[in-house]
Amino acid sequence: MVPRYARPQMTALWEAEAKYRIWFEIEAHATEKLGELGVVPESAAKALWAWWETNPKVDVEAIDAIEAVTKHDVIAFLTWVAENVGDEARFMHQGMTSSDVLDTTLAVQLARSADLLLEDIDLLLAAIKRRAEEHKYTPTIGRSHGIHAEPVTFGLKMAEAYAEFSRCRARLVAARDDIATCAISGAVGTFANIDPSVEEHVAERLGLTPEPVSTQVIPRDRHAMFFATLGVIASSIERLSVEVRHLQRTEVLEAEEYFSPGQKGSSAMPHKRNPVLTENLTGLARMVRSYALPAMENVALWHERDISHSSVERFIGPDACITLDFALGRLTGVIDKLLVYPERMQKNMDRMGGLVHSQRVLLALTQNGVSREDAYRLVQRNAMKVWESDGALSLLELLKADAEVTAALSDEELEKRFDLEYHFKQVDTIFNRVFGAN
Amino acid sequence: MVPRYARPQMTALWEAEAKYRIWFEIEAHATEKLGELGVVPESAAKALWAWWETNPKVDVEAIDAIEAVTKHDVIAFLTWVAENVGDEARFMHQGMTSSDVLDTTLAVQLARSADLLLEDIDLLLAAIKRRAEEHKYTPTIGRSHGIHAEPVTFGLKMAEAYAEFSRCRARLVAARDDIATCAISGAVGTFANIDPSVEEHVAERLGLTPEPVSTQVIPRDRHAMFFATLGVIASSIERLSVEVRHLQRTEVLEAEEYFSPGQKGSSAMPHKRNPVLTENLTGLARMVRSYALPAMENVALWHERDISHSSVERFIGPDACITLDFALGRLTGVIDKLLVYPERMQKNMDRMGGLVHSQRVLLALTQNGVSREDAYRLVQRNAMKVWESDGALSLLELLKADAEVTAALSDEELEKRFDLEYHFKQVDTIFNRVFGAN
Amino acid sequence: MVPRYARPQMTALWEAEAKYRIWFEIEAHATEKLGELGVVPESAAKALWAWWETNPKVDVEAIDAIEAVTKHDVIAFLTWVAENVGDEARFMHQGMTSSDVLDTTLAVQLARSADLLLEDIDLLLAAIKRRAEEHKYTPTIGRSHGIHAEPVTFGLKMAEAYAEFSRCRARLVAARDDIATCAISGAVGTFANIDPSVEEHVAERLGLTPEPVSTQVIPRDRHAMFFATLGVIASSIERLSVEVRHLQRTEVLEAEEYFSPGQKGSSAMPHKRNPVLTENLTGLARMVRSYALPAMENVALWHERDISHSSVERFIGPDACITLDFALGRLTGVIDKLLVYPERMQKNMDRMGGLVHSQRVLLALTQNGVSREDAYRLVQRNAMKVWESDGALSLLELLKADAEVTAALSDEELEKRFDLEYHFKQVDTIFNRVFGAN
Amino acid sequence: MVPRYARPQMTALWEAEAKYRIWFEIEAHATEKLGELGVVPESAAKALWAWWETNPKVDVEAIDAIEAVTKHDVIAFLTWVAENVGDEARFMHQGMTSSDVLDTTLAVQLARSADLLLEDIDLLLAAIKRRAEEHKYTPTIGRSHGIHAEPVTFGLKMAEAYAEFSRCRARLVAARDDIATCAISGAVGTFANIDPSVEEHVAERLGLTPEPVSTQVIPRDRHAMFFATLGVIASSIERLSVEVRHLQRTEVLEAEEYFSPGQKGSSAMPHKRNPVLTENLTGLARMVRSYALPAMENVALWHERDISHSSVERFIGPDACITLDFALGRLTGVIDKLLVYPERMQKNMDRMGGLVHSQRVLLALTQNGVSREDAYRLVQRNAMKVWESDGALSLLELLKADAEVTAALSDEELEKRFDLEYHFKQVDTIFNRVFGAN
């Protein structure tokens, strides 16, 4: 976790105190059910909850000190609770194994992280939607291969991002479901020393589903899917970030990250206004998606379990969630405050001498009986002249002067093919598909 | 694609001929709808379908030869079709762009691949289920960290695999839905020169859903999610393969890959019977999951599209699907024919002098009033003696001779804790969770 | 391996026939030495070489047919050789194990592939150097964050690429050394049944070094390092490709991939000239670097060896080498024929109203006694006006009109800071560093 | 960075204070040279060094507070230094750009980290060597595919690890050289405002080499190579760790991680002694190698530079170095204190009824005139009986009873092939290769 790429709410979820709080809840809920079943005295859970209601400070240092001796984190924690609660605490953890606590805790942390990330995505979607509506009909050139292609609108670019992050949202909901399971099944997962109803009880209290079959650990294919999903979301963040970076290039400058007063773009060059937020997001995306592979390597634990997954998860559990949370928040800010320059968009589009309309002329020629091959040749030979003139020549004028072209299309018919609005007639259809009908 | 790791049905889906067949269908369905809309003559689609009904050979070499000149694959294909169908073919591809054909084709190939992979998983699940039921109550030692823990059954191991591949199945269904979209939206995706109803028509005919907003290309987050999902499935294949490899180790030998008559395990050592199939699957899993990252890097195409994704997909499209198909098939064979040795399982379990029952004694001590810490100490000091004797000593006998232990537990109470069946009392519950109630 | 991204010479190295030829050589060289040692008759090697000198066709199908029965590739090959050579062939492979042949063969293939790749890099370096010298003093704007920074020359861009690929070359030489080892050490690598001098003999004949200690297999850290190195080289290919893609953007257009007559950029838009080669290289780079991870996962084989690495290497051995060879060749072609537009470079540089000189003014102010903070503020406030005017205003004129500025710098002093040549005074120094002194 | 996987010396290198100390040194060394060149007063560097000699506390909070306003880290640092040193400090950073400081600092941090890692590897090599010599002739079974193959010695296993980490050491030396460069070349790297001799001076003082051509940043192929190399080293750590984990399995138990008094292997099962250190190392290896890919993605910065690499390096710079340092230290401890059980090794070897000698019989048969195919068949048919008896039958006895075998080999000749020492006759040769001749 890199503090500068972390926000407090998500970070808190991954701190020691939050972890120990979940540990306590799992142990106390389990003891409660064990009391109901008559395995331990009902007084045990009562003592635990009574102490908990005093809102005791979770003394992380004290627990760490015990762990330094026992070299076992859960035993250290149980010892610390026993020191505080007293004799009744000895009934805790009956028939359970450490993994019951650890894995269920990780499930809670990941599920709560997913909830925050879903909120993040909702805020991002709202920002994107607002900008989409604002620029629904703002013309801008569509580019394939970085080369001018045909006109689109800036709103369409936003609609695409909206659709993409809506898909990311749905994937995250699925990944959250995948990860939100509870295992309280004892050593090697046989429930030999603990009744399955304890698991069901704890699951219900914590908003999880019981793991159908665990092997001391919750199977790691669930986590692999979770982190892979975060990697895909990060890649979508990269895509929108790269779009902004491209739009802000000096020669393009159709949009720009907000530049706050007092901000210095460069210590050496006072004139600079750089897309540093989206460049940063590009890097963060690389990190988040890199976590997918160690998560996948974690799946093949030996037999019922080994502990090799644990160190990996100590890194990627917090790092993936915290970094993605930060990145979504930063991207939302970028989109929300993005400076959009419609005049520059128009200016860029105009610089190509009308080349962006070449396809419509091609179609018109074929519709008027010219073979596709001939039509392509006729348009291309004029287009190349415009291209080589760097937009100084006009495609329309050249076509009007080409006898082979005018044999098939009148000047008026040609002019009709250079109408910008023509390209936007389905924008509303697309918006309805993406944002729903009005 | 490595031929030895490929099966014909899946491979055929990715061959040039299959691709061109899908191209034709897309073009013909689109022309059909364009005819209905009056954009092209209705005779065009009729001519195309009439020719198609003659079941013409798709002449891959001829198309390649044209491409060598045009340097454009779709134009080469259209030219070849025109050479065959004649004049009416010039109405094909009206208002479309190459990506409409290429991306929709990839969607069809991936969706059909997913269908085959789903069938593969179903066969694997069936094999696992059969072995699970066969060995529902076959005792075997559960191992954590490679060390004996407590008893499980071989059926439980199979149940876990069944649950895991059931999750994989559900994820693949979701990934298939994600990928199975159709884009016929023209240059930069504005539908400027083609009505959205054409897309809807082609989608419906090919069993796809229309892409809500495309940008000439279908957005690559869909593909990233698809390949990431295959990577997770591959990781689950690795897990079950590693389990078999461990079970087949000389010292363990609780199960073994089927060894066919005439097979030679080693050119140098005639006595060898190696788990080569599951080792091979371990390697194949590494490959399939490695494809997730380039797929994620493909997401951030520049602006409306660039072509950098294409070369990546020429590798991983076929390679991921073909290799995973092969791996699932191979794993199904391994499980189906796996030689299982219950006697050896029992023998291995017995070699630890009863250590596997240590937890039950621990619990019994605490239930009879010994503090958890004392109980742990009492059991551990006897367990370590057994451990150091390499199973020559018996934990039960040592405990009976430990005065601090017998102060809390009678011989009879101790013996009760060494009952193997005790561990299996929830096996049926778990089976019901995994396979459904009988 | 994707045929369209493969060149014949490299591909041939990885075909079955080439592999079997190396197998034969290893076996024959080893038999030769075994003859010298008196382990087998000297006639054996003579018989083998005598047959080999007849230049026999390597009958891949025949060998495959035998393997279908034996399920063991090396035994199948030995059987086939025996069928051809006759009785003397039974002395082949004495004391050896399959891995001796397979791993040494892979070393030969990788070493020969590295040799081809080194030739590729040399050709690329030559092309880059030629363009560097051609454009040593061609002014172009340097860009940080995609934003105009200060002037550089196009030759400097090429010099950087030259230095980078020179480093790649050195790394590949090291990786080749790492991989080029020979293991003929028998089962589990103890030389129990074969004298170490056989290994030394075969190594010397094949241009390899003997593996100091093998464990039946050559240790896979060597291969991991090799493929990781190819991944780094691929990433450098991506860097130069991305540079070209950026330079070819419509609004930038400072350079362009060569566009051959008759080429069609788009089936729909006849005006397009797209940087498809470098986009393609971007994708290929993603693939080649993705192979680093499975190669690293291959390192941790179980005990003396398992076979999980094998399937991975059947993919990435040929795919990494063939794809990188193709990519280096393609990049060389791109650089060699790159269309470079110096006028456009100048035009782009001029469009910023002199902002690119802001740092020099900043330095002049501080040198004349203005505090750094004040100097920054003074330059920035004028620079922002130019920025917002989209280059219509001139920084020099604005500075001349700013009383706080002119209090420290005269008009003449200001003008001196707008001299382009100033930036190029160390170009020769850098060229000497990169290409060596003239 | 996960604190529990971090050691203080390496961690300190990556803390803010260490970074700022390097920043100061770079600036002061550069100012010194600029003074010599007459660009700034010589008094400037003197003032800086005079203050530095007072050993001032680097006030990280104060610098952070300034950065919160300027949003630029280097400017914040320079401002803080100026507040402390006074007026002379304004001459710092003349003609430099932030990246000159940042990139050279990263080079220093990585080079110093590499130095620590090299020390770590030396300690590991020493531990391995000691155990190798201790167990040079301790017989143990060599295993391929997890299956008994032929005898090796435990010393050979250690020799292999020694050779592997020696290679890792050499690779790290090369990677250190690759990364240890200094760039003080100003905006876009042209030295327009700073003389190359400043770079040479700073490089010499910091033990770096000057970067031949930088583009404001040091090219990231260097870093990619560095992190890829760490990934390979991590993979070698995984290999040795997996070996220990396998040896510690209950059924194998030929070696064991040291188990300290008072340690608890499991909260639920008091009998457990788990290889938790090497399992942990397996996970850490997954993390370290995962960093190779984002490092490779960092190479293709846009034009002269973008800032996307920075966030990646804030993670992987410290995380890769700190984690690998910890892992090397932990592995050294594991090897140093590893409990090795030669009796158990012998016992395991004996359990296969002599199957491990099958190859020698095969060779003896062929040497006495039996065809390879027949010899294989004869040995295999007896070996399979032993195999199926689970080692109860003796291969030697069965062979003596097989008339086809005894037709070629006498009892005495057979017995000679079951000599364990035979396998170790080249151990000394291998040790000389690995550790050098005595």
From TrEMBL, chains A, B, C, D:
<feature type="domain" description="Adenylosuccinate lyase C-terminal">
    <location>
        <begin position="353"/>
        <end position="435"/>
    </location>
</feature>
<dbReference type="Pfam" id="PF00206">
    <property type="entry name" value="Lyase_1"/>
</dbReference>
<dbReference type="InterPro" id="IPR024083">
    <property type="entry name" value="Fumarase/histidase_N"/>
</dbReference>
<dbReference type="InterPro" id="IPR020557">
    <property type="entry name" value="Fumarate_lyase_CS"/>
</dbReference>
<keyword id="KW-0456">Lyase</keyword>
<dbReference type="InterPro" id="IPR000362">
    <property type="entry name" value="Fumarate_lyase_fam"/>
</dbReference>
<comment type="pathway">
    <text>Purine metabolism; IMP biosynthesis via de novo pathway; 5-amino-1-(5-phospho-D-ribosyl)imidazole-4-carboxamide from 5-amino-1-(5-phospho-D-ribosyl)imidazole-4-carboxylate: step 2/2.</text>
</comment>
<dbReference type="GO" id="GO:0005829">
    <property type="term" value="C:cytosol"/>
</dbReference>
<dbReference type="InterPro" id="IPR022761">
    <property type="entry name" value="Fumarate_lyase_N"/>
</dbReference>
<keyword id="KW-0658">Purine biosynthesis</keyword>
<dbReference type="Pfam" id="PF10397">
    <property type="entry name" value="ADSL_C"/>
</dbReference>
<protein>
    <recommendedName>
        <fullName>Adenylosuccinate lyase</fullName>
        <ecNumber>4.3.2.2</ecNumber>
    </recommendedName>
</protein>
<dbReference type="InterPro" id="IPR019468">
    <property type="entry name" value="AdenyloSucc_lyase_C"/>
</dbReference>
<dbReference type="GO" id="GO:0004018">
    <property type="term" value="F:N6-(1,2-dicarboxyethyl)AMP AMP-lyase (fumarate-forming) activity"/>
</dbReference>
<dbReference type="GO" id="GO:0006189">
    <property type="term" value="P:'de novo' IMP biosynthetic process"/>
</dbReference>
<dbReference type="GO" id="GO:0044208">
    <property type="term" value="P:'de novo' AMP biosynthetic process"/>
</dbReference>
<comment type="pathway">
    <text>Purine metabolism; AMP biosynthesis via de novo pathway; AMP from IMP: step 2/2.</text>
</comment>
<comment type="similarity">
    <text>Belongs to the lyase 1 family. Adenylosuccinate lyase subfamily.</text>
</comment>
<dbReference type="GO" id="GO:0070626">
    <property type="term" value="F:(S)-2-(5-amino-1-(5-phospho-D-ribosyl)imidazole-4-carboxamido) succinate lyase (fumarate-forming) activity"/>
</dbReference>
<dbReference type="InterPro" id="IPR008948">
    <property type="entry name" value="L-Aspartase-like"/>
</dbReference>
<dbReference type="InterPro" id="IPR004769">
    <property type="entry name" value="Pur_lyase"/>
</dbReference>
